[in-house]
Amino acid sequence: DIVMTQTPLSSPVTLGQPASISCRSSQSLVHSDGNTYLSWLQQRPGQPPRLLIYKISNRFSGVPDRFSGSGAGTDFTLKISRVEAEDVGVYYCMQATQFVTFGQGTKVEIK
Amino acid sequence: EVQVVESGGGLVQPGGSLRLSCAASGFTFSSHWMSWVRQAPGKGLEWVASIKQDGSEKDYVDSVKGRFTISRDNAKNSLYLQMNSLRAEDTAVYYCAENSGSSVDWGQGTLVTVSS
Q: Each residue of B9-32: pLDDT tens digit?
């Protein structure tokens, strides 16, 4: 099974400042079809998860451009260029190259 | 509208059964791996089961193997999860998800509560 490890698990951020979350997989996420099925999800308090990024770096429909994803192979990063109050919540990385697994979640809160 | 809508949750006694459904619309359902994911109260996301486009491949998290069955009906754009021998630890909100993340956002989920 592919294990996903996120760091940090908690990220206090000042409004308007950047934030970054790392996700590392226990094996390469490159699928035999050439795609890398690494997504990022946001879960605001009391809400269902929401798709932010799919296949490493593609923003889902309606996602603000302050969110960006990068990486390759086993190392991936989600960046928020300037954190806004509505960005508070828990962020998960998710791999779907070999069935599905999730990172533990990173809680983003305002300092 | 591009969406998935989960239904079928509820309160069930330990040892009981439930069948969850997920109605997909607005995207080519038959082209995608689909999964069920759950979230217990106050916990993170846990993958439960996945099914290939044509239903020929399925897999489950160890804790539900032999108790849960994932299936799909591409003609009806629907995904299902048959849950038998339910336990208290199966209490969670259950979500259906398109694996690649490219087609549809997550739905609101359906709450399953296993309690006497």
A: 999 999 999 999 999 999 999 999
- Whole-angstrom distance, CA of residue A97 vs CA of residue A76: 14
Answer yes or no: are the C-beta atoms of A109 and A88 closer than 8 Å: yes
* Cα dihedral: A14, A19, A105, B18 (round 10): 90
CB contacts of B59 in chain A (<8 Å) are: 99
Question: Which tens digit of pLDDT belongs to each residue from A73-92?
Answer: 999 999 999 999 999 999 99
Q: State which H helix or E strand residue A13 sits in.
A: strand A10-13
**Which letter does DSSP use for residue B90 in this model?**
G
Length of chain B equals: 116
Per-residue model confidence (pLDDT) at position B50: 97
> Cβ separation of B100 and A58 shorter than 8 Å?
no
Q: How many CA atoms lie within 13 A of A78 on its CB side?
A: 31
Distance CA A34, CA A51 (A): 22
Look at A102 and B105 and tell me if their CB atoms are within 8 Å: no
CB contact under 8 A, A100 and B108: no
Instruction: Among A49, A54, A99, select the one facing B100 at the smallest CB separation.
Output: A54
Give the torsion through C-alpha atoms of B107, A54, B65, B76, to 10 deg. Answer: 50
Chain A residues within an 8 Å CB radius of B109 = 48
Binary contact (B37, A105; C-beta < 8 A): no
